[in-house]
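tokens incoming
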């Protein structure tokens, strides 16, 4: 009985404390701002097509396109969906028809991701974390603070601590487990050899270093940094152990209370994603914007509003 009470208290302490309604509303706003850049970056290839061009048949449609019977790409439809996506994201930031806006974002991402992945013949996982965060926003009361909805409907500022905390804490737990389970997936598919100096990482470095084709003289267009690193298995071994340590240890971030230590850990993970993009073209480059969930944005927003923004305006007026 005592053990059950201890577990219950720990559960409640983790999931239902730590954040205010203002924290949740600000997180919705700042994550929304990050999504504006994320959407554009993720779907740039789809938007590079001629909007009034011919329809294309999907040779390898993604699984839910097969399920829904979607067989053709209509370029103008993709541009229309992108416009709706961006409009809904702005609406989410403003907190106008918040739940409806979030639902529209989710549906548009499903369509545009389906188009891109059906052309590529591969399933990309870059939207998984943002989509889970959006789903939790959808279930939460994030539209009742710092929003047009709250002002127009005269919603009292009464989002309780537990109502604000559980979606944010669940987001944190999901992201931490996303990295933790990625290690399990690597070991399951490749074994511990994935982390060896002459294993999977070296192979990927070589393949990605020459993926840009050949010159007119028949020589490979190489990513010199990737190709050079592939020749040093001892360095690859060190980097792979660091990857193993941070992915296995990511859940420990949930136990760190110090903002400085959390920030240091997040900067390390961000460096990892930048290095993965530069060396292996693993395109999680913009995903660090979701790490905002690990911080209370109230003091940050207050600092931006009272100090950073006035300073920027003064410098801008002086420059003008």
């Amino acid at each position: 009985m005592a053990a059950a009470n201890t577990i219950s208290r720990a559960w409640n302490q983790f999931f239902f404390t730590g954040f205010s309604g203002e924290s949740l509303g600000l997180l919705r706003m700042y994550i929304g701002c990050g999504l504006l850049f994320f959407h554009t970056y993720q779907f740039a290839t789809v938007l590079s097509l001629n909007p009034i061009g011919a329809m294309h048949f999907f040779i390898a449609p993604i699984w839910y396109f097969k399920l829904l019977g979607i067989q053709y790409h209509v370029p103008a439809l993709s541009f229309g969906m992108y416009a709706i996506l961006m409009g809904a994201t702005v609406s989410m930031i403003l907190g106008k028809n918040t739940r409806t806006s979030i639902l529209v974002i989710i549906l548009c991402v499903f369509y545009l991701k389906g188009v891109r992945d059906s052309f590529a013949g591969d399933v990309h996982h870059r939207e998984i974390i943002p989509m889970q965060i959006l789903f939790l926003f959808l279930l939460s009361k994030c539209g009742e603070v710092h929003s047009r909805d709250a002002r127009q409907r005269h919603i009292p500022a009464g989002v309780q601590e537990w109502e604000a905390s559980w979606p944010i804490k669940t987001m944190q737990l999901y992201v931490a487990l996303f990295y933790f389970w990625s290690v399990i997936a690597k070991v399951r598919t490749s074994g511990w050899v994935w982390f060896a100096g002459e294993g999977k990482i070296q192979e990927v470095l070589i393949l990605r270093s020459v993926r840009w084709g050949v010159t007119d003289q028949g020589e490979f267009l190489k990513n010199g940094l990737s190709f050079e690193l592939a020749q040093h298995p001892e360095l690859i071994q060190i980097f792979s152990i660091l990857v193993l340590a941070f992915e296995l240890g990511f859940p420990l971030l949930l136990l760190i209370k110090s903002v400085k230590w959390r920030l240091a850990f997040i900067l390390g993970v961000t460096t990892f994603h930048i290095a993965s993009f530069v060396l292996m073209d693993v395109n999680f480059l913009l995903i660090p914007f979701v790490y905002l969930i690990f911080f209370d944005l109230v003091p940050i927003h207050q600092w931006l509003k009272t100090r950073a923004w006035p300073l920027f305006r003064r410098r801008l007026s002086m420059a003008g």
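note: The beta strands are 56-57, 72-73.
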